[in-house]
Amino acid sequence: MVRIDTAGVAAEVLDEGGAVLGNTSDPHGLQLPRGEAERQLRLRAEGRAEAQVKLVPSEDRTVAVTLDPLPHGKQAARKTAASKKPEVKPEPAPSPVEPAPKPKPEPKPSTSPDLISPFKK
Questions:
Q1: Which residues contact 57 (CB under 8 A, 6 or more apart)?
Q2: DSSP for residue 66
């Protein structure tokens, strides 16, 4: 039986492969097989820096571990990354459509209609 005291902070306890073994808030502690081989456990809790614990589970024991708070910027960044929604950009307003220009009236002849054009056949 191993108890990990994290000073009131509930943290998940993970083994070397990342499998969850339990929680530090469990009053019964963690059931680890006894042995002489050193185990490396990871502790993680929201808003806290992950901690590593090395121990040999040769006997029942209690281990005290301090989980330091994350710096404010990292904690906010971690939450933001997890809950960030895709940004929706508004479509640009359509450009105003200019009305088609009015056709210009044919110019009035500046000569008399009685004149014959030498260029017309």
A1: 2, 32, 33, 34, 35, 39
A2: -
* Angstrom distance (rounded) from CA 110 to CA 82: 79
Cα separation, 117 vs 121, in Å, equals: 9
In a 3-state reduction of DSSP, which class is residue 3?
Answer: strand
Single-letter amino acid, residue 107: P
Q: Is the pLDDT of residue 99 over 80?
A: no
Contact present, 65 and 4 (Cβ < 8 Å): yes
Provide the pairing of β-strand 61-64 with 2-5: parallel
| All domains of the chain in start order, with CATH | 2-68 (2.60.40)
pLDDT, one tens digit per residue, over 55-86 is 898 998 888 888 999 887 554 444 444 445 55
